[in-house]
Amino acid sequence: MSSTPGRTHSGRAASRRSASLSTRRSRTALLFVLPQVVGLIAFTGVPLVASLGYSFTHWDLVAPAPTFVGLDNWAHLLSDDRIPAVLWNTVRFILVGTTSLLVFSLIAALLTFTPRRGVALYRAALFLPYVLSQIAVGVVWRWMFNTNSGPIAGIWEFFGGDSPDWLLDPATAMPSIALVTTWQTIGYGMTLYVSGLQCVPASLLEAATIDGANRWQRFRHVTVPMISPTVFFLTVTSLIGAFQLFDPVVAMTSASAGPATAGGPSNSTRTIVLYMYNQMFNYSERISGLGYAAALAWMLALIIFLITAAQFALSRRWVHYDDPVVRASRKRARA
Fold first, then answer.
1. Which of 61, 70, 137, 230 fits a disulfide with 196 by CB distance 3.0 to 4.6 angstroms?
2. Does the reported pTM lie above 0.90?
3. At what angle do helices 173-197 and 119-127 cross, to 10 degrees?
């Protein structure tokens, strides 16, 4: 039986009212988002485009205007033999700093995950260094690593050993900086891990226990897959942060002249961002200046993009976003 004209008209009117309401909601949402979009374009988009343009110029910030040099900066970038060295320093930092952050923050989360008396205080104590200034932390640890008067050297000598020259030896300087950054950020990683551990269903652990799995097997085959998104997020963000390492190196290795003298000893801690800073304000070289620093910045952005894209591509093999309980219920529903 066909619908009456009155009902058809009322249905169309209701549809128009719904569409009008949806339009008003969309406009309201855009109005709230507009300030953030404008800020993103003004303070991120415009500087990005400007830096790309500057990479084709030479400007020492002393001349009244930049000079167009075409691809000279990029050609020098490919032939600069200092870039592999500063990139290798960054890789050394990653091997120690990123790895130790992922491992030690997970250990801290496992130790403080179970609710018990005083656990909130322990978590707060571990998280506190994360909110401190990296420069302040670096200055304090530079004193602690001092071979002549630092407390670490005193403890080392108390047990009868000769303290290494932590920040004066090219073999130990970068690992020392990496461990300091791990100490400062371990609370941040612990917080994320704790939140991931809270999402592990107790029923899965109980089922694994009933099946005869020991503690390590439960951790390896149940807990780790369930917190793999957290591990992936920490890996991506910590690697991006590692490639932008600057403040700890300046605070722990520079002399009184500031960042211009940082990166020692023997350039063993000079990172790509510190080298970019040096080239930005180094006017003694023919190619250095704002243009070459901009080319370095875009090279760094490309490296970070490629590494992040590779991480996302490889994450499909080991990162599990689907809840196994939900997946099992779906299988039972299909059956």
1. 230
2. no
3. 140
